[in-house]
Amino acid sequence: MSADVTDPRAGHRDGVRDGDEAAWLRRDAEKISGTLPPLLVEAHRLALSLAPGVHGRRRAGPGESFWQYRPAHPGDTLGSIDWRRSARSDRLYVRELEWEAAETVLLWCDRSAAMDYTSAGTPRSKVERAKLLTLALSVLLSRGGERFGLIGTAAERPLTGERQLMRISAHLTAEAAEATGATGTAGRADYGAPPAIAQRRVGKIVFMSDFMGPRADVLPRLAEAAGRGISGVMLQILDPAEEEFPFAGRTRFESMAREIRHETDQARTLREAYIMRLAERRDELAAIARNSGWQLILHRTDESPRKALLALHGALGGV
Q1: Which residues of the chain form beta strands (DSSP E)?
Q2: pTM exceeds cut of 0.85
């Protein structure tokens, strides 16, 4: 368990009204922590650090939660008048509920071989961070009553609730177990490319990847998804070494699936060209986001996952 994930027992205070939601979540996290896979437990704790609670869309509409009183207008029915509130004033008031229509969110977690990379001194690989954030975001979506699915898995069809969360957790956990076995990167692509979106009704989509694959594979897929009018978020996850290029002297570079190899006696001389290529790729991702109204979020594996989850949560409109 990483040190930057909030312990659900920290600051627990029973009976404090303002902290009821957080206290309930803490008790829930403690209750499940002994039976669920470690990845899901950590995702629950990470989601708990935001603890937004279930809420609606902050506008009037069908729902169960009270939103506001407003003055009655011509055309309002007698049944819509809140007579108790109106009795305290010289005006008639209508009691409005908060709209709580479910959103449909699809998630893609790049599990290609390249995502296994982790440099010396970095606690998590890119794929470990991507899986944690995918699952933590799923926890928030589940608690918000949203429909969500994980692209490329048996849980791709968007559904609501805890059962869907458990399906996604089981898939990601099984993948993690397989990755530590003898097969390693066998059977996995060297680099990931965003998949085509088969679902017709999708409100939002989240792509989590390093987006370091061949340009011809990555960018057209992103542009295709953005061109469908779907609201989207791209989270680029990189290892610190992939941003800083700290290599010098004789170095042999290999892709994780060993499909690409390059050996040099002067690695430091490659740094400037590498940094330029990385900046070009980010500029291309940013252009797609800018032209389609998407958001591009940059994240390093040596940063707190809470920072990335908070950015994702905000990009999705606080679902």
Answers
A1: 66-71, 93-97, 104-109, 147-150, 204-209, 231-238, 251-254, 261-264, 295-300
A2: no
- pLDDT tens for 249-298 read 999 998 888 888 999 999 999 999 999 999 999 999 999 999 999 999 99
Q: Inform me whether the pLDDT recorded for 57 exceeds 80.
A: no
Give the list of residues 6+ apart from residue 249 with CB closer than 8 angstroms, or none. Answer: 265, 266, 267, 268
What is the token pair recorded at 135? 């699952």
What is the rounded CA–CA span in Å between residue 253 and residue 98? 55
C-alpha dihedral, 40 to 126 to 146 to 195, nearest 10°? -130
- At residue 13, the 3 state secondary structure works out as coil
* Percent of the chain that is helix, strand, coil (3-state, to 5): 40, 15, 45
How many CA atoms are closer than 13 Å to the CA of 77, on its beta-carbon side?
3
> Tokens at residue 12, please?
């627990």
Cα 288 to Cα 222: distance, rounded to the nearest angstrom: 8
Contact of 175 with 97, CB cutoff 8 Å: no
Q: What phi, psi does 227 have (nearest 5°)?
A: -70, -10
Residues 234-269 as b or e (16 or more Cβ within 10 Å = b): bbbbbbbbbeebebeeeeeeebbbeeeeeeeeebee
